[in-house]
Sequence to fold (286 residues):
Amino acid sequence: MEQWIGEENSRLGVALKFHLKKIVHEESSEYFDIIIAETQSIGKILLFREDDDITIQTAEKFDFYDEMIAHVPLTAHPNPRRILIIGGGDGVVLREVLKYDSVKKVIIVEIDKSVIETSKKYLRLDEGAFDDPRVEIVIEDAAQYLRKADFKFDVIIGDYSDPYQDTAAGSLISKEFYRNVKKVMRPDSIAVFQAGSPLFQREIFLRIYGYLKQLFRIVKPFWTIVPYYPGGMWIFLTASDRRDASEPLRQPPTNTIFYNTEVHKCAFVLPEIIRKLVEQGDSDGA
Fold:
């Protein structure tokens, strides 16, 4: 009998399944159950189970999300040296960040140590990135970390699970959090945050967009397709006081499967469904 695995999201009213080859590993952490599975169509995947919901975090194949959230800010900054990754315990964004020779230091702040350990051992999509000498791993709630951080970053990447109030990422949806992000940025630094599905998580986008518009001079959304996320498309928000992240300044690495300079520019051209969402955010903040 065929078996299937994937997203079962009662909050969104969505299920998204892939043919299961085998369960590679499963364990319970302080925050959720962590599942590594191998599928027929998208390779190994990382899933979190919280209560009755199962959400897909990343996949081995067709990983357009991680390339876009990493390469858009890194190519839009002229000399990204110090990088902060909020979340990112699967190591995939970290892998992409370390493709840039200019990067001298990366701090990854992950709330759940088990996500990193399990991903390193069973998922292996970081390709050794966690062991790079430029990397410092901090196991802590990023909201708490940012309250006490006293140094600056060139690029900040918010790569966390859905930030609802009752989840592990719930502390990352407050104005205080984004105010503390700005505190560790220079005027020409760039921050980018995953902002959910424009189809099913409009409230996440509107809340983050509203906070960023109050705090930064330049706030721009961009989007991409993600075959294994609900709705198949995802929004990101960039924020800076000086840098327009829609303008790439540097050549990207050559070993990408989705991102290139043309895609970067096109990602800021918004479909009407996202454009109207931005207009609603602008109207709400007026």
Notes: The chain has two domains: 4-59, 64-285. The helical segments are 64-76, 92-97, 113-123, 142-148, 175-183, 202-215, 261-267, 272-285. Residues 144 and 177 are 9 Å apart (CA to CA).
